[in-house]
Design brief:
413 residues; Serine Threonine Protein Phosphatase 5, Tetratricopeptide repeat; 14 strands; Beta-barrel_YaiO; TPR-like_helical_dom_sf; YaiO family outer membrane beta-barrel protein
Amino acid sequence: MKNLFYLFLCTFLSPFTSMSQEDDLSADEIFLRARHHAFEQKDYSEAIKLSKQALQKAPEYIDISIFLGRLYTWSDYIDSARMVFTDLVNRKVEDEDFFLAYASLEFWNDQPANANAIVDKGIALHYDSQDLLLLKTKINYSNNNYEIAERSVNRLLELNPKHTEARALIKNIQEFTAKNALGITYNFTHFDKQFEDDWHIVGLSYRRATPIGSVIFRTNYANKFADNGVQFELEAYPRLSKIFYLYVGAGYSDNVGIFPNYRTGVSLYANLPQSFEGEVGYRQLYFNDHIWMYTASIGKYYQNYWFNFRTYLTPSQENISQSYAGTVRYYTKGANDYLGFIIGTGLSPEENRNNLLDNASYKLKTFKVGAEYNFSVNRTNLFSISSTYYNQEYRPNEKGNQIDITVGYIKTF
C-alpha cells in the first residue's frame, strides 16, 4: 500500500518538479534546449515555447529574440515574426544575424523591396559579410535585377574565391548582364602522320543577351586538306525557369567534308541542389549520311573548383560507340578567370575536327589530354588559350599524334 501511495505521489508531483527544474535553468541553458528541439527534433512549437521562457529570464538577450523570429518564420507565423523583428529595429539592433533573419523573412514572403532595404542596411554595417552579400545576390537574381546581383556576387568572390554557391550563381547571372559580346578565335592543328597539311580555323561570333536567354551567331572559316570552307552557326540558350534552360544549336555549310553539311543539337540543362548541374541531349551531324549522338553530363561546383564528366553515345547497327571526357577547372577570380584540364577518350561533335566522324574514325581508339587558361581584363576583355594532345588510331592498329592550339578573345559590352 505504501508503494502505491509513493507511486501516486511521484506521478502527481512530477510536472511541478519538472517546472521547478526549468525555473532553475539559466536563459543560456533554456536557449540550448530550444535550439536542440528546433534543429535536432524539428519541433518548432516546443522551441518557440522554450525561447519565450528564456526571454522571460533575459528580455534583452538579442540572440534569443532573433532565434524566436526565425522560428516564427519557419513555422509560417509571418505576423509574429515581423513583430519580433520590428521590436529589434526599434531597439536599434545591429547584429549581422538580425539583418539576415529579417531580410530572409521578407525575401521568402515575396517582399523583395523590403528584403533589399534590410540587407543593404546590414551590409552598410557589415561590409565584408559573405552571408549578407549572398542573400543580396539571391534576392536580386530572383527578381531579375541582374546587374545588382552581379555586383554583389563579384564582391563576395573577391572576399572568398572558394565560395561554392556564389561560384555556381555567377555563371547564371552573367548570362543576363553581358548584353553584347564580340569574339574571335583561331585554332591550329598539326598531325604527325594522319594528314600532311596543318589545319587552320578562324571563328567570328556575336552574342546577344535577351530576356529569355542568350543567342549566338557564329561564322567559321577553315583551311583543311589544303582546301577552304565556311560554316554558319546559330545557337541559343533559352531559359525555362531559374532551374531549367535549353541549349538549341544549328549549323550549315556548303563545304561538306571540311564541315558537316548541317548540324543540329538540343540539350536540357538543370541547376540542381548542392551546386550540381546536369544535362541530357543529342547532337546530329550530316555529311553524306546522318550521325546521331546522345549526350549526358554532370557537373559540380566545389569551392573554386568545377568538376564535369560528359559522355557521347553513338548507336550504330553493330555497336554503340562511346566518348568520355572529364574536366576540372580551378577558378582564380570571377566566372571568366580559370585554369582548366581535360582528359578523355573518343571524338566528340563539339571539337573542330568533328569532320573526322564522317570517316567512322570515332569507332577507333582515341586518347586526349589538354589544358586551358582563361582570364579577364577589366571584366569586359576575355582572353583564352588552350592546347590539346590527341593520340588517335586513324586506321586499325595505326596511331598518330595531333596537337591542337586555340587562342581567343571576347569583348563584352
